[in-house]
Amino acid sequence: MNGAEILQTMAQYEASARNDYSLGSPNVDQLLTLIQFNVFRALIDNTSVIRFTLDWLDEDAISPWCAGVPESQISYYPPSLRPTSLQQDVCHHPWIDLFPIPQMRDNLLQKYGDFDEYALCNDLVDFYDVSNDETGLIVWSNPWLPSGWEVSETFLRKWSWVVKGCDDLAKSTNYWRGIRGEEPLVFNN
User: Fold this and answer.
1) Which InterPro entries does UniProt cross-reference here (predicted)?
2) Structural domain containing residue 116
3) Residue 186 domain-assigned?
């Protein structure tokens, strides 16, 4: 699928979910799909915030950060989405650049090529075919704010190295869990 087709699919899915909700008949099975859809939509929003194109959806895309971007341009982006030194030094796919947690991006780049990107992608954003029993991340607010992101217990268990040292994400996760009356998660740093 190209960028336009993905945006059209997203719009159709969102319209369907809103229609179900307005009719008072939301499908409980649709909840995991909706959560992963929300993460994907957050990444699309962050694409716009950092002025990337939807070319990042191409499997062979290379991050624009690798080519070098002037500091004057970077200063306009939210601090959470500004590239780290590692993002500018390591040639990588641009999907990594879209998460508002710099340490998470660096963790991914430190093991880039040594993990199953497809499995990670499925656990994060595959809203077409949700085969896992719990989502990876949840987005509660503006997608460029780390305080609006939450890690699921399943994701933390399976992908702990991805969020290692992500103190803001741990704080945010436990804030959202606390609102629901859930026990805090322990991030083993």
Assistant:
1) DUF3425
2) 3-179
3) no
